[in-house]
Amino acid sequence: MPGAKERNTTRRSRSWLIVAIGLVAVFLALPWLVRALLWRWEQSPVLRGRQLAAAQGCFTCHLPDGGTEIPNPGSRWGTVPRFRAGNAMMYASNRDEVEQFIRFGAPRVWLDDSAARARLASQPLRMPAYGDRLSDQQIADLVAYATAAEGVDLPAGDPADAERIAAGRSLARARGCTSCHGVEGSGGLPNPGSLGGFIPGFRGRNFRDLVRDRAEFDEWVRTGTSSRLAKNPLVRMFWRRQTIAMPAYREALEDQELDQLWAWITAVRTESPAP
To answer: 71: helix, coil or strand?
Structure first.
């Protein structure tokens, strides 16, 4: 039988083996943990709403391939309304009516009108009622996404700055900012090779880490990078690996346009404060 000294040596060897296995497991899990944390920091009602819309099949009808609205004979306008087409006011005049569409399949004013009910019954494609399928929080997230996609309301901000906020939103859409940074700056669109695996938006906590102030925002837009973050070798490594990089607009944007974009982003962040 082994002596006490040999048994102690065996125990120590096993302990070191367990520690080594644990360290390897942590090392292998670290990238996943970092991405999970960054994704959690990115969350906002608009981003959750977009994810839910995709999961519930909303894009099947409201964001069809090719961008052409699906014909719907007998409906009010002859087609199924498409997200981001800017025609929400033809169907819903405010956020409450958007919620009623999601919850009941149509606004109450339509459901209370016999002619409108007959029209709804005659059309081949009918909006489902999600009121019994989704929670109130999920419906609120869908409303946040749908109203943001359609620009139903300006993001909450200083009322005295409404003109600059509206101009900034229009500019962000016209210049393609929201194509990468998400509807109303909600972020979360894929970017293989990047640290988090997605393009950050303006609403979540990740933006606060990337853009500390207005001067750094201007630097990002003008040069496509941040001199502060470029000093970090780990950041530089992921910048080299990522598929989609921030473009450098240099003199393609005027100072006034940067003011408008910053006003809009500030309003968006006021509406969805970072966790």
So the answer is: strand
C-alpha to C-alpha distance for 163 and 271, rounded to whole angstroms: 17
What is 154-275's CATH topology?
Answer: Cytochrome Bc1 Complex; Chain D, domain 2 (1.10.760)
Q: Is 196 exposed, middle or buried (0-12, 13-18, 19+ CB in 10 A)?
A: buried
Which residue ranges make up each domain of the chain?
A: 43-153, 154-275
Q: Which two tokens stand for residue 260?
A: 């408008």
In tens, the pLDDT along 182-200 reads: 999 999 999 999 999 999 9
The Cα 105–Cα 18 span in angstroms is: 57
C-alpha distance across the termini of the chain, in Å? 60
pLDDT tens readout for residues 219-262: 999 999 999 999 999 899 999 999 999 999 999 999 999 999 99
As a whole number of angstroms, the distance between CA 272 and CA 187 comes to: 12
CA distance 6 to 244: 58
Q: What pTM was computed for the model? A: 0.83
Whole-angstrom distance, CA of residue 180 vs CA of residue 99: 27
Whole-angstrom distance, CA of residue 200 vs CA of residue 235: 14
